[in-house]
Amino acid sequence: MTELPPYWLRDNCPCPECRDPRNGQKLFQIDDLPDGLAVAGSTEADGHLEVRWSDGHRSRYPLEWLDRADGGDGRTEHGKRLWTAADFAAGLPGARWEAYLEDPAERAAVLAAVRRDGFAVLRGVPAVERQVLRVAESFGYVRVTNYGELFDVRVEPDPNNLAFTSAAIAPHTDNPYRDPVPTLQLLHCLENSATGGDSGLVDGFRAAAILREEAPDAFEVLTRTPVPFVFRDRRTELRADRPLIEVDPRGRIREVRFNNRSIGTVRGIGPDDLDAFYAAYRRFAAIALRPGLRLTFRLGPGDCLVFDNTRLLHARTAFRPDGHRHLQGCYADLDALNSTLAVLHRRAAALDTIAELFAGEGAGEYLGEEVTMAEHMLQAAAAAEAAGAPAHLVAAALLHDVGHFHGALHGRDLMDGRDNRHSDSGADWLAQWFGPEVTEPVRLHVAAKRYLCAVEPGYRERLSAASAYTLEVQGGPMDERRAAAFAELPGARDAVAVRRWDERAKVAGAPVPGFEHYRPLLAALMR
Fold first, then answer.
1. How far apart are CA 468 and CA 448, in angstroms?
2. What is the rounded CA–CA span in Å between residue 52 and residue 34?
3. Contact predicate 96/303, CB 8 Å
4. How far does Cα 466 stand from its chain's mean position?
5. What is the CATH number of the domain that holds 261?
6. What's 372's domain CATH number?
7. Does one domain contain both 46 and 133?
8. In a shared domain, residues 418 and 306
9. Omega of the bond prior to 180 within 30 degrees of 0, cis?
């Protein structure tokens, strides 16, 4: 591993002296590193590479991280599924709106479809005005343009755009005259009773990839010829000069801008180059119009289409004035969608880790009681839920004893007569994902037992034999001074509530929900 370039390795040191542990941002400038920096020594242990540097600094890198491939930012053709219409014979990607809102896994699946396929359809979105804004806000932020925060796609008496007529609209991307272009578009159907007006999508990346395969010279022309895209009306004048097909420095397709209505006059290149451009442009347009590439479907009231405006070309068939067609649209951006998706994946991975502890070590005995560790914590959560406790307290009750899980937290058994301080180690571990409203009742639930034994007559006598034993290991009942100080702590009341549910959660065979029941609740609380 030490054959890695030293400045790259040191620039990526993960220690808290080099990176803020809260956000991962670097705490030094690249020119702060000394000239001639070199590795003075290294060892591999416990799945990590430990490096001692020539300037005395020490770094520790997970081997898995060092071996990880770079997946990129997800904006190029790499990692996407390039498609034709036949690929969706079984149906369009999407979900019901209610499920999307309530289930983080369902939401992640929809957003992943937008990232992978370029679009998804949410069904059952209430067909009321301005609801499209709520859809955008469910994963990001609305991009306000000269059309406003939202726009109505319907026949207008004095349209400033052909989209606001009943005419057929050829496959195109929106707003190519902006820089940056809105990278996402949403269209929410409020009414669609007219004959015609079907929606269409074309995978522009697939069309560009076909052009590259069939006519590489034409593809090259369209990646290097700047095209003026222009829009003007009485209040607005916009222009952006960009190629029809944009590639990243590695030559991978990153963006398509295609809108015949908005292309201005191409100037500044010679006649031969103009001929080459128009030949390539026409060939690309012909590919985009191939019937096999166009996916056609009809949006009904309550359907909301979310699609990548830097990749997909959208279209519409003409419609007759024998009914009404009204969509509301807005723009948003892929970076927010990708951020939301990454956070959902991160939370899902964390919940998977916790679930594995419940299923694995959680099946082991719980301090000599008649229940397993998992049964104990699930019973505590069920008691909190039955009492109508707020979500953060249900979570604290569910997770209060994770500090006993040796594999994750390296604790030691209380029954050996040594305080493993599981409340502190558990709270510290959970703080990766949860705020103090969850972690502090976990941290204080042992102290709450000592407190209750000091201030509540008869409480100590009701403890199980195992709990009475661990009470002594953990310091015994508080004295009057410590009890008074505990009662003043901000999380004391919540910790006492968790403690009471903890003591009740030791009934062999009690029927309670499993861990999966609490996943949505935990996901909603995660930071």
1. 14
2. 14
3. no
4. 43
5. 3.60.130.10
6. 1.10.3210.10
7. no
8. no
9. yes
Which structural domain, as residue segments, surrounds residue 208?
A: 87-340
Contact indicator for 428, 449 with CB cutoff of 8 Å: no
Query: Quick one: angle between helices 373-386 and 391-399, nearest 10?
Result: 160
**What is the tens place of the pLDDT at every residue in 380-391?**
999 999 999 999
How high is the pLDDT of residue 406? 62
Token reading at 368: 């000599």
Answer yes or no: do 37 and 96 share one domain: no
Cα angle: 520, vertex 521, 523; to 5 degrees:
60
- CA-based nearest residue to 245, from 271, 275, 277, 268: 277
Q: What is the pLDDT of residues 247-266, one digit of tens each?
A: 999 999 999 999 999 999 99
> Which string of DSSP letters, residue by residue, matches 286-352?
HHHT-GGGEEEE---TT-EEEEETTTEEEEE--B-TTS-EEEEEEEE-HHHHHHHHHHHHHHHHHHH
Amino acid at residue number 253: I
Q: Which amino acid is at 255?
A: E
The dihedral over CA atoms of 461, 466, 471, 473, expressed in degrees to the nearest 10, equals 150
Q: Which amino acid is at 511?
A: P
**Could you tell me if residue 352 is inside a domain?**
no
125 and 25 belong to one structural domain: no
Report mean pLDDT in 10-residue bins for the chain, 527 residues: 85 94 90 96 92 96 91 91 98 97 93 98 98 98 95 79 80 96 98 94 98 98 97 94 97 97 94 97 98 97 98 95 92 97 94 94 80 93 97 97 70 52 88 94 93 91 84 86 94 94 92 95 91
- Measured on CA atoms in the order 200, 206, 207, 208, is the torsion positive or negative? positive
Does residue 385 share a domain with residue 248? no
Spatial strand order in the sheet of 312-316: 169-172, 312-316, 199-203, 294-297
Q: What does the alpha-carbon distance between residue 89 and residue 80 come to, in Å, rounded to a whole number?
A: 19
Do 444 and 418 form a contact (C-beta atoms < 8 A)? no
Same domain as 480, residue 380: yes
**Do residues 408 and 286 share a domain?**
no
Measured from the Cβ of residue 511, the count of other Cβ atoms closer than 10 Å reads 7
**450 belongs to a structural domain:** yes
- Determine how many CB atoms are found less than 10 A away from the CB of residue 516: 10
Neighbours of 462 (CB within 10 A): 12
Return the H-helix or E-strand segment holding 187.
strand 184-192
Alpha-carbon distance 142 to 185, whole Å?
10
Residue 287 lies in a domain: yes
Residues 38 and 106 reside in one and the same domain: no
Nearest to 261 by CA among 290, 232, 237: 232
Total number of domains constituting the chain: 3
Q: Are 57 and 41 in contact (CB under 8 A)?
A: no
SS3 96: strand
Burial grade of 486 (CB within 10 A; 0-12, 13-18, 19 or more):
buried
The answer to the question of residue 78 being in a domain is no
Q: Which two tokens stand for residue 21?
A: 């542990």
